[in-house]
Structures are given as structure tokens and as C-alpha cells.
Amino acid sequence: MSATVFTIANQKGGVGKTTTAVNLSAILAEQKISTLLIDLDPQANATSGLGMEKEEGGSLYGPLMGEGLAFDKIKKTPFKNLSLIPSEVDLAAAEIELAQKPDYLLQLRKILQPVIDSDKYRAIILDCPPALGLLSMNSLASAHYLLIALQCEYLALEGLGEILRVVEKLHQANLNERLEIGGIVMTMFDTRTKLSRQVVEEVRTHLPDKIFETVIPRTVRLSEAPSFGQTIFQYDKLNPGATAYRNLSKELITRFNLTDS
Questions:
Q1: What is the pLDDT of residue 14?
Q2: What is the spatial distance between Cα 60 and Cα 111, in angstroms, rounded to a whole number?
């Protein structure tokens, strides 16, 4: 069974995208789902969030430029069932250099296809930069499903409309007709504010079949964990954020039948 590829994207930074990528990957692995996390952000926050070091030449920059294989960049992590393709600053150059290649939006898909077809992973999660540049567009052209991390604030709703239009354009250009909206993850939910509840209800009204039931709470512990190179499950496993990501993983497994069978 080939891997199901998810990209977690949003053109806005600070919405919990990388936090979701790291913690969702870790908890899927804990539930015996063989998972590969691919860090496509030159800031390498997903890499450091798993307690992994940035290494020169360790990212997908080389394979994207036609040098080497994606397989060669896969690293073991401290977590059973979880592997990582790390990022480093050289990926920033890929944003510029990819534009000079033919089929520049399909380069990532081309180098990842052998990994997808290898039967080594059931889930592949792509963590994108906080902008819809060439790396993010390549990830959208490579994925089966887009998971949108959406902060519980009104400005986030404008961004949601923009990314939905990008998906439609990819379909129209025949760049990735298989891409679907896999789900919307509402992040930074503040139980004390009416605004958070209103934003969730508005998304639920317009996209009831896409929004996940689980909402990710705003909690300092989720923000602190990456600075220690830890997931929320290592840092504070009883935190409401840990409970939320555990529940979200169960929804994901059920919605996409993510089993290793």
C-alpha cells in the first residue's frame, strides 16, 4: 500500500502549522502508523522540534536540483515508526532556483514518487514555509490531501479563501487533480473568548464536512515544547494540547483509513 501524502500549508505564519506537523507526526507514529515528516521550511522548525540537528546537505535541496535521491535524505528520529527528511537554510535557494527548471511545480512530486511507492510509509506529512512560494506550491502539487491549520481569528478566514482558490487553480492547470482538502484544523482556540467560538462556528457552517471536530487549544506549553526540541507528548503529556493532538490523530486515522495493513 503506497503512502498517503498530506501537506500542511497556510500562507500565513504563526498559525500552528509546524506545531501541528510535528505533533501529529509523532502521535501517528506512536499509534504504529509508519510516518515520514518532510521539513520544507528553510527555518527548519519542524526539524528542531523533533530534537534533530540541521546538517549541511541534509535537506531536499540537492534532489530538487537533480543531485541525489530523496531516499538518501531520510533520517531516523528518536521515535519508533517516525522518520524525517530535515531542512536547512539551503532550501531558501530552492525557492529561486526551482523557477529555472522545466515543470518547476512538479519537481518535488518527481523526487518523492519512489518514496511514496516504496511501501515503507503509510503517511507522509509535508511541512511548508509560511508563504505560498514555490516550495509550498510543489508540496501542494505532490500531496493527496491538504490539511489547513487555521488560527481562530477573523483575518484567518480571508486566508482560507485564498488557499482554497490556489487548490482550484492547481486542478484547473492539471497539476494535481487528485489533491483534496483533507481537513481544516482550528488552532489556538481560546476558550475564554467569544471570537474563537464564532470563527469555529463560521468555518463549520461553510465547510461542515471538512473541519475536524478536534480544536487545538491555545496553550503556552505547546509554544514552549519546540524550544526544548520536544513534542508536546514528551514535554507535557497531560497538557490539553497533547490531548487535542491525540484526538486529532484518531480523526485522521479514521477519516483516511491510515492503517499499516
A1: 64
A2: 9
What digits encode the pLDDT tens for the residues 138-193?
999 999 999 999 988 877 777 788 889 999 999 999 999 999 999 999 998 888 88
Q: Which domains does the chain have, with CATH numbers?
A: 4-256 (3.40.50.300)
Count of C-beta atoms within a 10 Å radius of residue 98: 21
Q: Please, are residues 87 and 40 in contact by the beta-carbon 8 Å criterion? A: yes
pLDDT one-digit tens code per residue, 88-143 = 999 999 989 999 998 999 999 999 999 999 989 999 999 999 888 899 999 999 99
CA 32 to chain centre: 19
Q: Which residues contact 102 (CB under 8 A, 6 or more apart)?
A: none
CB burial of 150-164 (b: ≥16 within 10 Å; e: otherwise) equals bbbbeebeebbeebe
DSSP string computed for 114-181: HHHTTSS-SEEEEEPPSS-SHHHHHHHHH-SEEEEEEESSHHHHHHHHHHHHHHHHHHHTTS-TT-EE
Residue 134 CB partners (closer than 8 Å, separation 6+) = 94, 95, 98, 99, 104, 105
Question: Is the pLDDT reported for residue 210 higher than 90?
Answer: yes
Angle between helices 134-142 and 154-172 (to 10 degrees): 60
Residue pair 219/239 in contact (Cβ under 8 Å)? The answer is: yes
Cα(21)–Cα(243) distance, rounded to whole angstroms?
Answer: 15
